[in-house]
Design a protein that fits this description.
With about 240 residues, the chain is α/β, with parallel strands linked by helices. It contains nine helices and eight strands. The chain has a five-stranded parallel sheet, with helices on both faces. A three-stranded parallel sheet has the order 7-6-8, sandwiched between helices. Helix 1 crosses helix 2 and helix 6 runs parallel beside helix 7. The chain starts with a helix and ends with a helix.
Length: about 240
Amino acid sequence: MKKSMKKLVSCIAVAGLFCSVSSFAADYAVILKTLSNPFWVGMKQGIEEQAKTMNVEVDVFASPSEGDYQSQLQLFEDLINKNYKGIAFAPLSPANLVIPTAKAYQKGIYLVNLDEKIDLDNLHKANGNVEAFITTDNVAVGAKAAQFIVDKLGSQGGEVAIIEGKAGNASGEARRRGAKEVFEKNPQIKLVASQPADWDRIKALDVATNVLSRNPKIKAFYAANDTMAMGAAQAVAKL
């Protein structure tokens, strides 16, 4: 299911990026959040497959990590001057790519916003805009994961915890909200902790370790991305 979703979003993103210009116009770029997360690796593969199907060339870039705002900003700044016809980008935060996005828009570059929604109010104030915004329903993502946990725990339920993304990150907040709503609707489930780990495996390991030390009877973690889930799994494996 996750693989199909990544492929679908990738196809929509590539189609959106190329829809207003000739497929013979050459170069396009996509800036992903990171390639240290399996989700974004799958997204890169989907983009490259779809670009090949559409007979266009696309360069895919990514930040070193989901917390490296400055590197992503600098990457976008560099791409503006490389004559790309279109750039699709997944911001690490609503604010970190506002300035380069405005610059790219003013140069006539076709822009598609992926995943994390850019701060449109500030983008418009900077005389910028995007042609399209493509994302998943992150509230539904969190709710579906939480419901899976509820179903697995059954009528006995138990204590659970949420490992959130980065505080203030819209997609992470939406996943947390979706999961929390499902947990709270089920009286047999007790949500004992909900803490951010900034999309980072090591931070998730630390958060999960601390949660487990305070709540030794915990039955399940919901982590808002794959990378943090691996960190939580490490914490559980150490018990």
